Amino acid sequence: MTLYDLNKAKVLIVDDQPINIYTAFHALKEHYEIFMALSGREALAFCEKQRPDIILCDVHMPDMNGLQLCQTLKNNALYADIPVIFITAFTGPEDEIACWEAGANDFVRKPINKPTLFNRVKAHLTLKAQSDLLKQYVYLDGLTEIYNRRYFDETVNELYRSCMAQRRAFGIVMFDIDYFKYFNDHYGHLVGDDCLKQVAKAIARLIPSQSGYLARYGGEEFIWVVLDMSESELKARLESMAQAVSDLHIEHEASTCGKWVTLSAGALTVLDSVQFHKIEDLIYEADRLLYEAKAKGRNQVQYASVINQ
Ligand SMILES: [Mg+2]
User: Fold this and answer.
1) Which segment of 75-79, 101-105, 256-260, 267-271 scores lowest on mean pLDDT?
2) Which stretches of the chain are DSSP H helices?
3) What pLDDT is recorded for position 141?
4) What residues flank ion ligand 1 with Cβ within 5 A?
């Protein structure tokens, strides 16, 4: 969804009473794509499969109520920016306070006044689209269209902290294009830019959507923040990435590693370890492994894992 096609927005309506869903559906169906869930758990399952742009939520539902659902979403970095509007028949000011405290973005009273619901939803979707657009400018690298250094710096600490707290595997991979300075000197910076774009795309394509993200770390250095990936899968992915870059067949006459542009990488995974207190220590170690890969002749990956220490 962008600012210019709000009508493609996905609206998730969560209510244990189908009649209430039906009313909200009728207020919005002409304008948006509507999805429904009959419980908090169903709503969460939906979010994992396809991210809604906004959630309209009942408060009182059996099992997981609306407040719990909202809190769960707002505490998860993946979903925290999805606006949540409660649709509810309030009985007192403390109910409103409970909604705000759960992280609500707004609420609409039952019985639903259709124009009010439509305009509130539109206002929040517009805000969300504006904020998404701004983030795109702030967090994407203009050349390669992968995440930039700022995005990495602002997200990596929190990701590391939450992975360690939940005993999930976390990794850092530093990539460097071999002899890129010579490449630029030999072919010129415009060809160099095109090479960076192609390499970034080839690597990014091989990162599964739930396995972290790729960012441009520096000039010809990329960094992959690896989430929830086993050692064997990571190694296999890194091999595929090196192969994919070499398969681009970007001529590199100034390289001693071969005919084509190649990659060196330093990869480190951490599971359930207290060895690294700060993310900077991990980056330092991945960088050291990258240096080792270069010292051993480039066009290779140096890998280390730290488990249960
Ligand atoms: Mg209810």
Assistant:
1) 75-79
2) 18-28, 40-49, 66-74, 93-101, 114-139, 149-165, 180-187, 189-204, 231-247, 279-295
3) 96
4) 16, 58, 60-61
